[in-house]
Amino acid sequence: MNPCHDYLNHLTRRQFFAGAGLAMGGVALNWLAPRLRAAPAPGTLIHPPMPGFPHFAPKAKRVIYLHMNGGPSQLDTFDYKPGLQEHYDVELPGSIRMGQRITTMTSGQARFPVAPSLFKWAQHGKSGAWVSELLPWTAKLVDDLAIVRSVHTNAINHDPACTFLMTGSEIPGKGSLGSWISYGLGSENNDLPAFVVLTPKWSSKAQAQALFTRMWSSGFLPGSHNGVACGRRATRCSSSKIPTAWIRPPAARCSTRSRSSTTSRTRVPATRKPSRASPSTKWRFACRPACRT
């Protein structure tokens, strides 16, 4: 006779979950206690900067980077090229293309004519920067902008060009811009991640460029500098939209099947005891309903 086996054989499901709940509280307390004792002292930063940084008095408190993937072309916003008007509808010269392969989006075209911007341009601010009519408000602030026209890449598609812009390399695996800033300068806020990413949500029928996690990945840097992605995600269980993933159950768990399973379990009398069986069978019997909810 084994008292443990006899106890498990006569243990009801309700008793099992009551005891398991108390036990999980003890496990959680045991896990939290060392961390509460090891809380950082006042003034200690969880995300400190590298030793010696910043090496001068900083003026910026934070960096907000907007990556307008799929936005208007530079030829329609800041990069004024009046000479293109003279070559309108002229076939693209071979000296410009220089044998470069063509993207899938344009490979089916019969011709490759020169297409200048359709919008009006004007110079603005003390710098005299050219801005198209698409950006009337931005044109008023042009003296506060740094427009870089020297960036180029050998990639002909969006994804490798975006990866190059975010990480400095067309090949994935390098740390992203935000990860390097977090690694070098750290953060003064101990309650939030040093690097937060906001991703959009669009209809599945809409044309949109894909966003890959490597664009905010820490690469070979420590994982603590990885971007924490937040976005607008809707669930079938609720009409509300939540900013962070995985805090609501998947849609499959919110189906009628799950609700009916829960209802059927409530019909089991509290005094009913399962038949005598091995302890492993009791554990499967107790845990199987819980795994479905």
Concise account of the structure shown:
The protein is mainly alpha-helical and 293 residues long.
Question: Describe it for me?
Answer:
It is a single chain. By secondary structure, this protein is mainly alpha-helical. Helix content is 29%, strand content 7%. It has helices spanning 3-9, 13-37, 94-97, 136-140, 158-167, 177-185, 256-266, 279-292, and strands spanning 121-124, 129-132, 196-199, 228-231, 233-234, 241-242. The strands form three sheets. A two-stranded antiparallel sheet has the order 1-2. A two-stranded parallel sheet has the order 3-4. β5 and β6 (241-242) form a beta hairpin. The radius of gyration is 30 Å and the shape is elongated.
- How far is the N terminus from the C terminus? 36 Å
Mean pLDDT: 74
Q: Whole-number radius of gyration?
A: 30 Å
Point out poorly predicted stretches: 233-240, 268-293
Structural category: mainly alpha
Query: In sequence order, what are the helices and strands, one letter per element?
Result: HHHEEHHHEEEEHH
Q: How is the largest sheet built, in terms of strand order?
A: 1-2
Largest sheet: 2 strands, antiparallel
Shape: elongated
Strand % is 5-15%
* Helical residues, percent: 25-40%
> What is the β-strand count?
6
